[in-house]
Amino acid sequence: MTNKIQITVDAAGPRVLGAFWCDVLSYVEQPPPPGFDTWDDALDSMGIDRSDPDRAFAIVDPDGLGPRMLFLKVPEGKTAKNRLHLDVHTDPGELQTRAAELVSIGATLVGEYDEPEGHWITLLDPEGNEFCLH
Predict the structure, then answer these.
(1) 14 and 55, same domain (yes or no)
(2) Which domain holds residue 84?
(3) How far apart are CA 84 and CA 88, in angstroms?
(4) pTM metric for this prediction
C-alpha cells in the first residue's frame, strides 16, 4: 500500500512562500478542481470565505510524483530551528550555481558542508525555514 503525503508549512505569507518553493522544486500552483475555471469559483461553490486571499496556497509537482505542499497563514512567526527540513537534490556540479540562484530569489545562505556523509549547502527560505541543497 502506498501512502500519499502532503507537506503543510505555516507561513506569514502563503502565496509568496509558495511561489518561492515552486521555483525551488519546479512545482506549480495547484490548479482548481475539475469543473472550475478559477479557485475563486471553486471556493465560492464550497462556501469558503475568500475575504483573505492569502490564507492558503497549494503547490503540486506537475508530473504528479512529489507530495503536495500546502502553505497556511498563521499569526505567529517562526521562533525556533526546524525539527524537520527538506533535502532538495540538484544536478552534480551545479550545487553552488543553484544555491546562488535560490539566494537571488529570496533564500539566505547558512553554510556549505563537506562531510563523510555528503556535500550540501544549507539555506533558509524567505521565512527562515531551513532546507538543504544536495
Answers:
(1) yes
(2) 79-134
(3) 13
(4) 0.89
Q: Report yes or no: 7 and 69 within 8 Å, Cβ to Cβ.
A: yes
C-alpha–C-alpha distance, residues 99 and 121, integer Å: 7
The pLDDT value recorded for residue 42 is 85
* Confidence at residue 101, expressed as pLDDT on a 0 to 100 scale: 97
Q: Which amino acid is at 76?
A: E
The answer to whether the CB of 127 falls within 8 A of the CB of 11 is yes
Q: What is the CATH number of the domain that holds 10?
A: 3.30.720
Model confidence over 59-100: pLDDT tens digits? Answer: 999 999 999 999 999 988 888 888 889 999 998 799 999 999
In sequence order, the 6+-apart residues with CB closer than 8 A to the CB of 2 are: none
Domain count, the chain: 2
Could you give the 3-state DSSP secondary structure of residue 41? helix
